Amino acid sequence: MAYKCRADPVPEQAGVLNRTFGCVRVVWNKILAWRHERFRTEQAKTGFRYRDGRLFLAKMGTPLEFTWSWPHIDPATVNPTTVTVSRDPCGRWYVSFAVETADPEQLPASGAAVGVDLGIKDFAVTSGGNKIANPRHLERRARNLARYQRRLARCRKGSANRAKARAKAARAHRKVRAARTDFLHETSTRLVRAHDLIAVEDLAVKNMVRNRSLARAISDCG
Questions:
Q1: What Å distances lie between residue 47 and 21, 34, 44, CA to CA?
Q2: Any long-range contacts for 76-80 (C-beta under 8 Å, 24+ apart)?
Q3: Which of 54, 148, 179, 199 is such that its CA lies 20 to 30 A from the CA of 73?
Q4: pLDDT in tens, 89-119
């Protein structure tokens, strides 16, 4: 299991992370060999330290702040096997803690089965006649996205204004992506909890999006 949290590095930490991202492809093989040698000789794992819910990364004297979003779990009790730091196109930082965990308890049997027909006008229609509306996340924000893209196109390459415009466009896309992901998780979880068997048609989505008139609508459905 992995816990992905929003991270909030101070400027000095962000600088270290950015430099690390720039060098990671070059040094990966050397660092991997060095880590293997240290583990063989010292039984030491390098790269991060996690103590009492605080994360220390290599080359950082202060802990990296992050937002823990699971109130029922004490972060001090988490024992991560790996830690991954990432950054999205709009500049947000994230840290993901991978942990060993027991298999989840199986949900009680519902005795129900359902077939799901995916679509565009309706996101899905079940064999019981239940229609799941298509929220059309991208379509609802298309006007703002188009405006940000026009601003980006007018900016000179390499300028500060272009960087700001690119960040605004990336933030708008992130909101669409987050809303779509949340909807898909909620919908799939609701179906799983209510049925023992779910039959879904096998769609060749890669072929379907070649239809230019439907490509954006199909992609927006996720």
A1: 14, 11, 10
A2: 76/52, 78/3, 78/50, 78/53, 79/50, 80/48, 80/50
A3: 179
A4: 778 899 999 999 888 888 889 999 999 998 8
Cα(171)–Cα(143) distance, rounded to whole angstroms? 14
Q: Which two tokens stand for residue 86?
A: 């990432």
- Mean residue pLDDT of the chain comes to 85
Strands 66-67 and 2-7: antiparallel
Supply the DSSP string of 28-49, one letter for each residue.
HHHHHHHHHHHHHHH----SEE
Closest CA to 134 of 218, 215, 190: 218
Enter the pTM of the model: 0.66
pLDDT digits (tens, 9 = 90+) for 6-25: 999 999 999 888 888 877 76
Q: What percent of the chain has pLDDT over 70?
A: 93
Answer for the pair 140, 130: CB distance below 8 angstroms, yes or no.
Answer: no
Residue 138 has pLDDT above 90, yes or no: no
**All residues at 6 or more sequence positions from 175 whose CB lies less than 8 Å from its CB, including other chains:** 141
